[in-house]
Amino acid sequence: MRTDERGVVVLPTLPAATAADILSAPRLAGDALARLPLAEGAARLRVPVLLRAPAGAPRLLLARALHTAAGRSGPFVALTGRRPAFTSLPADATVAIDVGQLPPEGVVALEAALDDAAAWVIAGSEPDAVLPSSLAARLAAVVLPVAPLHTRLAELPAVAESLLVALARRAGGPAPRLSPDALASLATHAWPGDVAELEVTLARAWLIAGGDTIGAEHLAFGGEPAATAPVNAFAAPAPAHAAELELLLAELAHEVRNPLVTIKTFADHLPELMNDAALRERFAALANEGIARIDGLLENVIEFARLGAPRTETIELGPLLDRLLAEVEPALTERAVRVRRERVEHARCMGDPSHVAYALRNLFAGVLREVPPREDLAIETNANGVVTLRFAGSAQATAHLKHLTGPPGGAAVGDPTFLPLVFRLARQALERNGGALGVVPEAGAATTLVVRLPAAG
Questions:
Q1: How far apart are CA 240 and CA 233, in angstroms?
Q2: Residue 323: its pLDDT value, please?
Q3: What is the CATH superfamily name and number for domain 313-452?
Q4: pTM for this one?
Q5: What's the per-residue H, E or C state across 215-283?
């Protein structure tokens, strides 16, 4: 690496294999992968590429990988400082520059460099950065969008695994595995430092673990010692916890109470009902509906009680989800809910098939109560035993689901935000199998439920 007084840093070219790893799934996903061939081809015409990615993606590493993948023969140059020097650059250079906070004179210098096309410019900015209008127009031809890590929760296990493989390659040995509780703990962190922070966290955890498995107890975030790592919102509590049992019973009572109140209200007006045929029919329909709901709740709890100890085996998630979605197809059709599936070949997990089916069936039942009519339900699976369900819900749905990560006793039986029983039963079934259920709040009304189960080896 060479640096001069003008803030021109010449960096070594990355090996082709390293660049290929960085510019492939899971490090890149979605639109970024789809646009990668266009970005690589832009080098021939010296058309600038805009990397809209967090600094910790890391942006500079992505730019270096793109330089290698595009087959550039000239040097890779990073320009630093608020007044970057575009003059006297090495011949046929690839220039990386952060354009998010360029001063006016820097913008003018960059525009002149784009006019001259003497170098290939890879500009970088935060995903939501607002660029000067003149630059935004000049850099709009090829944009490579890389979403922040905290918005790609379903991909986090695969990203972590790829980073561990890269670390192991440096060490010349096999990569450690992440335990289910470690994966769940990683999913609860906000990752302000993005992938770069994740890499450092994993490297430190591996050193602390000193073996072939990294557990949640080995993880530390934001410089905290591992022993004081944040409480894992996905982590399973101790089995047969008295507070959890009390909460299950309270939620059952809450859901039984609603239809009983309806029946009682009509019963209090029986004298008036006797002379009104329409009201009598309405009462009979509501009474039957309430009794059926109570019966279903009790059957569900009885089924949960009969699950027993899990018998773990490999589960193919695709066929299982197909079967469960077929079961709820009438309800989906009635509410005009559109299901969008993103299928991954060989998506597998470990667990008891009956337990996992029970958990997912309850999740679907709960989600159908929260998704407004004519909305989308997006379901994704990956090869690491993760299923995500994303949907637009009401404010009440958000209030309901926040109790998934809250402490026991977070709501009273009369609270309208009380967590529906099906979610609590689903979480309990997942935890019996070493899995977890969490909620990822998003901007607006969108909500993502994340199901994690031990990945099949």
A1: 18
A2: 92
A3: Histidine kinase-like ATPase, C-terminal domain (3.30.565.10)
A4: 0.52
A5: CHHHCCCCCCCHHHCCCCCCCCCCCCCHHHHHHHHHHHHHHHHHHHHHHHHHHCCHHHHCCCHHHHHHH
